[in-house]
C-alpha cells in the first residue's frame, strides 16, 4: 500500500512539474520580441521588421500617444518601411494584428524633428 502511494505521489509531482514547465515556456514565448525597429528615435523614416515568417501579420496600425490612428496597412509583409514626412514629433505605438484581429506584437518608436 505504501509503495502504491509513493508511486501515485511521484506521478502527480511529475505531471505537475511538466505542466508548470509548459506554462513557463508559454509565458516566456509571449514576451519574446517579434519585431525589431530602426532607427529609433527616427527622423525621416522607420523600418519595422517582423521576425517570424508565420503566421504573417495581416495588418499594421500606427497610433500616436493619444491613441489616434495615424496609419493602417493591410498585408504589410515582414519588412515595413514608413515615411515619417506626415508624422509630428512624438511617440508612436505600432500593432501587428493577425487575420482574426488579435494583436500579434506591438511596440513603440519616437519621431524627432
Report what the structure shows.
- The chain is an alpha+beta fold and 113 residues long.
- It has two domains: 1-32; 34-111, Immunoglobulin-like, CATH 2.60.40.10.
- 26% of the residues lie in helices and 39% in strands.
- The protein is built from one helix and seven strands.
- The protein has one helix spanning 2-30, and strands at 35-38, 45-50, 59-64, 69-74, 79-83, 90-97, 103-111.
- A four-stranded antiparallel β-sheet has the order 4-3-6-7, with no helix packed on it. It has a three-stranded antiparallel β-sheet with strand order 1-2-5, with no helix packed on it.
- The termini are far apart.
Compact overview of the structure:
The chain is an alpha+beta fold and 113 residues long. The protein has one helix and seven strands.
Question: Topology of this structure?
Answer:
Elements: H1 2-30, E1 35-38, E2 45-50, E3 59-64, E4 69-74, E5 79-83, E6 90-97, E7 103-111
Antiparallel strand pairs: 1-2, 2-5, 3-4, 3-6, 6-7
Amino acid at each position: 500500500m505504501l509503495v502504491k502511494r509513493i508511486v501515485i505521489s511521484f506521478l502527480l509531482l511529475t505531471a505537475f512539474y511538466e505542466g508548470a514547465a509548459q506554462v513557463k515556456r508559454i509565458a516566456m514565448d509571449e514576451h519574446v520580441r517579434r519585431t525589431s525597429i530602426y532607427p529609433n528615435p527616427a527622423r525621416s523614416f522607420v523600418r519595422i521588421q517582423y521576425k517570424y515568417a508565420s503566421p504573417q501579420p495581416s495588418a499594421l496600425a500606427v497610433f500616436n500617444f493619444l491613441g489616434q490612428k495615424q496609419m493602417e496597412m493591410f498585408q504589410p509583409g515582414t519588412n515595413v518601411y514608413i515615411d515619417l514626412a506626415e508624422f509630428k514629433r512624438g511617440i508612436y505605438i505600432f500593432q501587428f494584428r493577425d487575420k482574426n484581429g488579435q494583436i500579434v506584437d506591438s511596440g513603440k518608436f519616437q519621431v524627432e524633428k
